[in-house]
Write a structure and sequence with these properties.
The complex is a heterodimer of chains A (313) and B (269). With 313 residues, chain A is an alpha/beta fold. Chain A has 2 domains: 164 residues, Rossmann fold; 117 residues, 3-Layer(aba) Sandwich (Rossmann fold), CATH 3.40.50.1220. Chain A is built from 8 helices and 16 strands. In chain A, strand 14, helix 7 and strand 15 form a beta-alpha-beta unit. In chain A, helix 3 crosses helix 4 and helix 5 runs parallel beside helix 8. Chain A is elongated and about 60 Å long. By secondary structure, chain B is an alpha/beta fold. Chain B has 7 helices and 13 strands. In chain B, the strands form 2 sheets. In chain B, strands 9-8-7-10-6-1-4-5-11 form a 9-stranded mixed beta sheet, with helices on both faces. The chains are: A alpha/beta (313), B alpha/beta (269). At the A-B interface, helix 3, helix 4, strand 5, strand 7 and strand 8 of A face helix 4, helix 5, strand 7, strand 8 and strand 9 of B. Strand 8 of chain A pairs antiparallel with strand 12 of chain B.
Chain lengths: 313, 269
């Protein structure tokens, strides 16, 4: 039986995590189809058809999916996509909201945040903020899974685009609707997709210093900017900057933690980065134990020096 | 005929408490957030023996939100519910001390997984007819984050997950959600399921007199069989391991050395 990957997109743009989810699907084994549910989502469907390993893209393009509410999209999946062995969804807030509801309608136990595929019914996932990994086996006929994008490489481009097929809409339940959306606008790469992430903690002291010190470093490295929960709670940055157990999970090539002590909840969000650099004035900061390189000292002195050193390099 | 008259009467003079719906707050007993979990040497699971257990912090936020709704006259009675063994009574007593009016323990010694919990809660919701179920967006032990949307799906109710602001009005909830790109505000019809994110509120502490009074509040006990729910696990945990980690932890003297190492040794810049 085939594997269904539910695309994460905003109509015009397909989210990169969809590609990583296709890689996870390929590890399961079997033909891979992508569902794109939305309104005016032709561009996203077109992008999905160009992902290597995808045999077909199915598009439910209807105003009732414009808000991508879990209620309507789950009803669509339950009505039209029951005959799949697996349903995989990227484990961002879109997938975390939608996927358990799909599982409820199919009466199966979902598996969250999969980081390894060991077999068609066996997966590895982190628990306790990443302090332990469990290997789990699902006995349900359909495996309904969210995939942690950072744990899988993105699938490449196909030589020949996959066919795109329209799917009739189902179930406009009218249970919920979106009133507004306030998205953070940034010229920087998205946090979960960036090759380099520079994150700041409470030690930066204020919103002004947070950006004054981190932006030049991020500019120099082409990095996204992240933050610890403490920095978000202190009001330096908005919630969508948060890296950690309850925020975003990142696994960039290089992660630089500035003034972050390293609570286990933060480590859960970044410890799979390839190289980790930590700067902190406390020589006993727990973040140092998960770092490749660390510097002990005053970040207000070190950061300008680091930017200088990068410029003179 | 008489019955019709009563209906017409109540429509003309609505009960002032009609909008003050009941709120169901599921609370989970988990390893205290400040403790580091220990994996059993044989890889068969976590070793929690003798460790401090507490209410899941996200559920504390959910309970706090329910209490504030009650204090502002939006909500009526608050029913806290927990699924698990006898020690969950302690978690429920804490919920009663914080402000829940009643508690329900759905008692089982099985390791009930999120789908089983959601089915138990759905059965209880049918009995209790709450206007709102509000719970944490995830538990900090299994980090599954499934119960809220599973429950909403089973009941066919709307859902609003990762709430950072909730406004109740006219039988609807306006919920601001923390999503990957920023914030989104949904309007959902009640009854609904809401799951709470970190920044919805700051939970209060239980006052000592309330902890004493909580012992007098009702705590009912049900069992999965009594609710007609099969909680047989669908997922088998094969093993539990320490995540692989190998970091060099090299202390560098200055910025120049760091840049050199990142370029020449790690080759990431």
């Amino acid at each position: 039986m085939a594997i269904l990957v539910i695309a994460e997109h905003d109509g015009g743009v397909l989210k990169a995590a969809t590609r990583n989810t296709v890689t996870a699907a390929a590890k399961v084994g079997g033909p891979i189809r992508i569902l794109v549910a939305g309104s005016d989502c032709g561009p996203a469907a077109g992008a999905a058809s160009k992902i290597s390993g995808v045999s077909k893209v199915m598009v439910a393009d209807d105003p009732r999916y414009g808000d991508q509410t879990a209620e309507n999209v789950a009803a669509l999946v339950a009505a039209r996509f029951r005959d799949f062995s697996h349903i995989l969804v990227p484990a961002g807030t879109f997938g975390k909201n939608l996927t358990p509801r799909v599982a409820a309608l199919l009466d199966v136990a979902p598996v969250s945040d999969v980081i390894r595929v060991e077999g068609p019914d066996t997966f590895v996932r982190p628990v306790y903020a990443g302090n332990a990994w469990v290997t789990v086996r699902s006995s349900d006929p359909v495996k309904v899974v969210t995939v942690r994008a950072a744990a899988f490489d993105p699938a490449g481009d196909a030589d020949v685009p996959a066919p795109v097929e329209a799917v009739a809409a189902a179930g406009d339940l009218g249970l919920s609707r979106r009133i507004r959306r306030e998205l953070s606008l940034s010229a920087r790469p998205e946090l979960t997709e960036a090759e380099v992430v520079v994150s700041g903690g409470r030690a930066l002291g204020s919103r002004e210093d947070f950006f004054r010190l981190l932006e030049p470093l991020a500019d120099r490295l082409g990095a996204a900017i992240g933050a610890s929960r403490a920095a978000v709670d202190a009001g330096y940055v908005s919630n969508d900057y948060q890296v950690g157990q309850t925020g975003k999970i990142v696994a960039p090539r290089l992660y630089i933690a500035v003034g972050i002590s390293g609570a286990i909840q933060h480590l859960a969000g970044m410890k799979d980065a390839k190289v980790i650099v930590a700067v902190n004035k406390d020589p006993d900061a727990p973040i140092f134990q998960v770092s490749d390189y660390f510097m002990v000292g005053d970040l207000f002195r070190i950061l300008p020096e680091l930017i200088d050193a990068l410029e003179n390099d | 005929m008489k019955k019709d008259c009563i209906c017409a009467f109540s429509a003309a003079f609505p009960d002032p408490r009609r909008n003050a719906f009941k709120v169901l707050v599921p609370v989970k007993r988990v390893l205290d957030y400040s403790l580091r979990p220990v994996i059993k040497a044989d890889g068969s699971g976590m070793d929690l023996a003798g460790l401090k257990m507490s209410m899941n912090p996200f559920d504390e936020i959910a309970l706090e939100e329910a209490i504030r709704m009650k204090e502002s006259g939006k909500a009526g009675d608050i029913v806290a519910v927990s699924c698990g063994g006898n020690p969950c009574r302690e978690t429920l007593r804490m919920a009663l001390a914080l402000g829940a009016d009643r508690a329900v323990l759905i008692e089982t010694d099985l390791d009930v997984q999120p789908l089983g919990v959601a089915k138990l809660l759905a059965a209880l919701a049918v009995k209790e007819s709450p206007g709102l179920v509000i719970c944490g967006k995830q538990a900090i032990d299994d980090d599954a984050g499934q119960v809220g949307p599973l429950l909403a799906g089973l009941l066919g109710w709307p859902q609003a997950t990762f709430a950072s602001k909730v406004i109740i009005k006219d039988g609807r909830a306006e919920v601001t959600r923390e999503i990957d790109g920023g914030l989104e505000t949904l309007e959902v019809r009640l009854p609904a399921v809401i799951t709470t994110d970190l920044r919805l509120n700051e939970p209060r502490y239980a006052a000592l007199p309330n902890i004493l009074k909580a012992k007098q509040k009702p705590l009912d006990v049900f069992h999965p069989e009594g609710l007609g729910v099969d909680v047989t696990p669908r997922i088998t945990v094969l093993k539990t391991i320490e995540p692989p980690s190998r970091r060099a932890c090299i202390r560098v003297a200055d910025a120049a050395e760091l840049v050199r190492r990142l370029r020449e040794d790690a080759r990431v810049i």
